[in-house]
Amino acid sequence: ASTMVCAKSMEMTREIQPGWIEAFAADKKYLSDNHFDVNDLDEDGIKSNVLGALALLEAPIAMRPHYTDSWAAEVLKKNLEAEKEFEKETGIDIPDDLVRSSNDGCEVGCELLSFVSKFAKDQDRPIFVPIRDGKCIEVTTHFKANKLYEKYRVID
Predict the structure, then answer these.
(1) Contacts of 116 by beta carbon, 8 Å cutoff, 6+ apart
(2) Beta strands 61-64 and 127-130: pairing type?
(3) Closest Cα partner for 108 from 147, 71, 75, 133?
(4) Residue 147's closest CA among 126, 120, 125?
(5) What is the CA radius of gyration of the chain?
(6) Which of 5, 76, 80, 130 sits at 20 to 30 Å (Cα–Cα) from 102?
(7) Nearest to 97 by CA among 115, 117, 123, 85
(8) β-strand 147-155 against 136-144: which pairing, if any?
């Protein structure tokens, strides 16, 4: 759960349902949605049950912990949608083999995310990084010309 809440999206977890935010607070005065992203990815309104609550990273990352091969088709579909948006908005082509294999594992997902993160300015559709049990992602950051850069890699 700790990895999911710092991501931009948790929509594929199937574990977070409407009303989950309310379950974590006793008094409504402590509930706030001001930290949620205002991007409406599918033009049907913002649904707080699919947005990460602690967006600690700049990159448009979405994670699916406990990843298994049964998620591969959906991860690839989501990453192809993200590729289409990225290429349209930036004019930069992502290598097709990088996107096509982004559902194979965390290493390739991190490589794709690092590439998109480096050039994207307003990426609405996140890159889904499949995290198998036993894998850990390391994020290194640096500033250059007043821009934050993040690089993602896998630690076994």
Answers:
(1) 59, 60, 82, 86, 94, 123, 127
(2) parallel
(3) 75
(4) 120
(5) 16
(6) 5
(7) 115
(8) antiparallel
Tokens 């579909």 label which residue? 77
Distance CA 75, CA 127 (A): 9
pLDDT tens-place string over residues 108-134: 888 998 899 888 888 888 888 888 777
Comparing C-alpha atoms, which of 108, 107, 121, 10 is closest to residue 59? 121
| 36/148: higher pLDDT | 148
**What phi-psi label fits residue 2: left (phi over 0), alpha (psi between -120 and 50 degrees) or beta?**
alpha
